[in-house]
Amino acid sequence: xxxxxSTAVKNLPLKRKLCFLLKLVCFVxxxxxxxxxxxxxxxxxxxxxxxxxxxxxxxxxxxSASVLKAxxxxxxxxxxxxxxxxxxxxxxxxxxxxxxxxALWLLQPDIVFILGDVFDExxxxxxxAWADDVRRFQKMFRHSVxxxxxxxxxxxxxxxxxxxxxxxxxxxxxxxxxTSGKLITRKGINFVLVNSVAxxxxxxxxxRTSEAKLVALSHKLNCSQxxxxxxxxxxxxxxxxxxxxxxxxxxxxxxxxxxxxxxxEDSAPPEEKNIPFKEKYDVxxxxxxxxxxxxxxxxxxxxxxxxxxxxxxxxxxxxEISVPSFSWRNRNNPSFIMGSITPTDFSLxxxxxxxxxxxxxxxxxxxxxxxxxxxxxxxxxxxPFYFAQRLISKHKAV
Length: 398
Description:
One of its GO terms (cellular component) is endomembrane system. It comes from Emberiza fucata. This protein is about 40% helix and about 15% strand. The protein has ten helices and eleven strands. The chain starts with a helix and ends with a helix.
């Protein structure tokens, strides 16, 4: 009897240690699961599809089946083998993968648009590096057959104009089925895909081909809408498209002097807002911008490239939304746009992802608490606590 009691007493500290270790493992696991998985559901669950307001010219109210639900994001910048650090890749690509997969599961969009700079080193990458980047992209942005994904070429995908070659453009088009001047029509809504890098206006081979396709598409759309400057004779042999004013999707924004007029928590930092934009580098040239507005007279323009949010009006009536970067690498508060779109109207709502700084703060707080628990367990914090207890006891005695 005495022997068994002695063994039980000896095993008691071991059981306490194992119990404490189990509690630490559960605590660390809970923090990891929340910060790396659950937080995306908590944040994105708060996003809601905007409602489309029915205009007076509509015969009947739009039904939910006639509304196209679109997610628009930009500038994912998947790192390559040249500049990509493995830890940066691991952290930021996991963030984008979890954000995208959570958004698909919770929001169930009909279509997703990525407005260029899908990759960071597409302008440099070798065939093998390109294949590896594409493989990683397809894993991160996998989607069901019920959701369509459309990507637009950006300067980091095919190079700035002076780096762009037919080979790089064809390589991108082969993977993403993208062609500048391509029309995508869904639920009677016309989307025009523009390779804005090819809007240089210098007559290069890629530029000529791209502009020719855009002009031809402009003619089709204008004939379908029966614009006054298009006679019936000129439109007699033209394939008719849905008579819906198009939405332009491109990487470069149309020309604007700077981001000085941009507002909102995801706009450019104050120290960058007044820096003048360089034409054909930060934004399209004034000439190219006027061409696109004249050719298509769009009802909405969606662009990326600046990594910051902005909303401007062109010609006093055509809105352009610059979509911020989707990656923590470029922003502490990345986001995407949710659009409810019909052939005659649209409504947009921004959905923010978890802030990187908040996730970091949670980890720091959890780490500090973990250290305190360990020190308390090994009784390294006993003297201060004992001193405080003595002070309280004396105070009560008095």
